[in-house]
Amino acid sequence: MCGIVGYIGKKNAFPILIKGLQQLEYRGYDSAGVAIISDDNNLNIYKTKGKVSNLRDSCATKYTDGVVGIAHTRWATHGEPSERNAHPHASMSGDIALVHNGIIENYMLLKEQLIAKGYEFKSCTDTEVLVQLIDYYYQKNGHVLVKAVCRALNDVIGAYAIVVLEKSNPGHLVAARKSSPLVVGIGENNADYYFASDASPIVEYTKRVVYLDDGQIANISPGKEPEIINLNEKSIEVDIKEVDIDISKLSKDGFEHFMLKEIYDQPICMNDCMRGRLFVDDNNIANNHIVLSALNNFKDRLLRAKHIIIVACGTSWHAGLIGKMLIEKMCRIRVEVEYASEFRYSNPVIEKDDVIIAISQSGETADTLAAIQLAKEHGALVFGIVNGVGSSIARESDTGIYIHVGPEIGVASTKAFTGQVTVLLLLALALGHETGALSEQEYIETIDELSRIPAKMQEVLKQDNKIKRLSERFTFAGNFLYLGRGFNYPVAMEGALKLKEISYIHAEGYPAAEMKHGPIALVDAEMPIVFLATHHKLYEKVISNMQEVKSRNGKILAIVSESDELIKSIADEVIEIPHTIDALVPLLSVIPLQLLAYHVAVAKGLNVDMPRNLAKSVTVE
Ligand code: AGP
User: Which band of pLDDT confidence, cut at 50, 70 and 90, is reported for residue 407?
Assistant: First the structure.
């Protein structure tokens, strides 16, 4: 899950490359590097361990001029984070260099074959094997780079997005992709070309982009039209798109971290997500309705679906659990929720009438992408719920809905979760209404209440200072247990994941009633227990679970509905959230958990936006 950037044109490449890497740093940040061909045709490669700022600072005294270059920020897969293993990697001949995002699965075999041909290796990476393999064919075919890249990629098994430069011909760059994302930006009059793992580093220079598809190779020279071929060197028509990313959303807006900004963005994002989809008539509730264009395309297949399978990973999988409850409750259609990474290898039963809902913030998660490709092979309909506009999962899906929460930079997903739950609500309401499984009354009343959630989210955010104060009491904890029931059970899982990701404290989310079947053995005065105990049909049951913990001296922090005096008498700490109906509770109850995790991590002095060992979009297996 690395970030790659490339530039070729008339401008000095170095500042463009460094700025691009910093915008992609959420994809990986354990080492970075840049390669630039200087005006006198020298290939200068600089690499450092750690963040992009280290690379920038270390190059301050180095020669970095040149109008063509490639750069990389790394999330190590093969070879520990170090200068030696950082990208770009150059070939033994020194003729070519490349940056790579992905994994070459058969690199060991290829490496042995290259060693037998006299190649030597400086790093432990799979990527260096690829550049040597390209060099092997480059030397054999009379130095035709694009042919050498094609030939080499035909030998490769795995995932890749690469940009390759050639020392003796600085007038072009060659790029290719399979499974890992790659975007090519086209400057005015084709004078400049930009390459990046996603469009965010490109949009300040141009809105005209080409999203490379699997098996496509771009051979790019300034002043010429972009040339795209496939692995058999056959020309492919170039599909140029206009991207519309609001750059202002890429800044922290005065917040200390992107994560906190994105938590505070949620009321606005929810309105953006419902705009043009949720219609409320304050004068006549009977006119409340939902419009989802995604349903129009495949209405028949969606309405006659007997079986829905949700595939996702991480936070998106937690949203999927809530989606299952909503669709089964409102549409009476059987829903399964699968970890995409398991689903893709479990030889699952997929019927052609099945509908696969793929949930992904980035739209680039490799396991989810592979899961939907498997589903399509079985003829199932793929419905994408995605944030990344133009992303691979969006383009691979038959139909779908964008959650429209804007770029999410913080590695720990927050606004995407509430955006995904909002879209799943709109889908369940619309489908339930169409099939008649949902009563007209429940349909219009839920729509009414949904329109009030953004304001209620604002109310929850007002608790931020209180949550900050009480979070400082928990930084000592080595373990946490999050407990909830019904719609709050997946929220408990999500709260635990947020804490794990950014505070490095072990935490588990559990259905509250499951606790007495084991986890209750963990309860003691040191173990903070977070209960999601809002008013809903299982309220009394949760109270008894809480009593079980209290009688074993557990420390309870409870998320409760406003003015709940009963739980105040049981729990050590309570955070009150506005009342709402069961199905909408997760949109409010998750926010205190996001803030709790955030403040515990800040109190521990940790890098909240770029937690260790993680990356924002997992584009490898
Ligand atoms: C969540 O905070 C994590 N960043 C991670 O679990 C994430 O949800 C998972 O990798 C799935 O990503 P996606 O939604 O982009 O597919």
Answer: confident
Q: Which of 92-101, 249-258, 291-300, 313-322 has the lowest mean pLDDT?
A: 249-258
Residue 531, Cα to own-chain centre: how many angstroms? Answer: 28
- Between the alpha carbon of residue 249 and those of residues 121, 184, 274, 283, the distances in Å are 42, 21, 19, 35
In this structure, which amino acid lies at residue 39?
D
> Helix 126-140 and helix 145-153: axis angle, to 10°?
130
413 touches ligand 1 (CB under 6 Å): yes
Q: 188 CA distance to ligand 1 centroid (A)?
A: 35
User: How many angstroms separate the most distant Cα atoms in the chain?
Assistant: 81
* Contact indicator for 520, 549 with CB cutoff of 8 Å: yes
What amino acid is encoded at 456 in this protein?
K
Whether 34 contacts 18, CB under 8 Å:
yes
User: Closest ligand 1 atom, CA of 618?
Assistant: 10
> For residue 220, how far is its CA from the centre of ligand 1 (angstroms)?
33
Mean pLDDT throughout 551-567? 94
Q: Is the CB of 362 under 6 A from ligand 1?
A: yes
Substitution site in 29, 197, 313 for ligand 1 pocket (most atoms within 8 Å of beta carbon) = 313
Summary count for the chain: helices (H), strands (E): 20, 27
pLDDT digits (tens, 9 = 90+) for 541-555: 999 999 999 999 999
Q: What is the reported pLDDT for 518? A: 95
SS3 335: strand
Residue nearest to atom 9 of ligand 1 (CA): 314
Residue 248 has pLDDT above 80, yes or no: no
pLDDT of residue 25: 87
